[in-house]
Amino acid sequence: MILYDELGGQPGIRKVVEAFYPKVKKDPLLAPLFTNDIATIMDKQEMFLSQFFGGPDLYTAEFGHPRMRARHMPFTIKPEHADAWLSCMRRALDETIESEELKAAVIERLKVSAYFFVNS
């Protein structure tokens, strides 16, 4: 299963991103980490998730290799941050995806990254 296609391609990923970030901005643990221009962050997240889920390499084409762990090192990220991030994503998926199987596959794929960024 190519998650990019299952999610509805670029428009489907954009819907998830648009459902996700309002939750992040309201989360007491995550909101302080997202003080920059949220529109830019959302665009980057959409590009990254596109390639992460098997679609076009939009992020790499624009910014080079993702190096996501290195890009997140300036921030203190604890396991509870990863848990909160995944919780926001689960709720965003609940709003945008009907298939429980697809939601579970997306979360499983994202868990690896969420906990990989933990640095404290």
Automatic annotation (TrEMBL):
<dbReference type="InterPro" id="IPR044203">
    <property type="entry name" value="GlbO/GLB3-like"/>
</dbReference>
<keyword id="KW-0408">Iron</keyword>
<dbReference type="InterPro" id="IPR012292">
    <property type="entry name" value="Globin/Proto"/>
</dbReference>
<dbReference type="InterPro" id="IPR009050">
    <property type="entry name" value="Globin-like_sf"/>
</dbReference>
<dbReference type="Pfam" id="PF01152">
    <property type="entry name" value="Bac_globin"/>
</dbReference>
<comment type="similarity">
    <text>Belongs to the truncated hemoglobin family. Group II subfamily.</text>
</comment>
<keyword id="KW-0349">Heme</keyword>
<dbReference type="InterPro" id="IPR001486">
    <property type="entry name" value="Hemoglobin_trunc"/>
</dbReference>
<keyword id="KW-0479">Metal-binding</keyword>
<protein>
    <recommendedName>
        <fullName>Globin</fullName>
    </recommendedName>
</protein>
<keyword id="KW-0813">Transport</keyword>
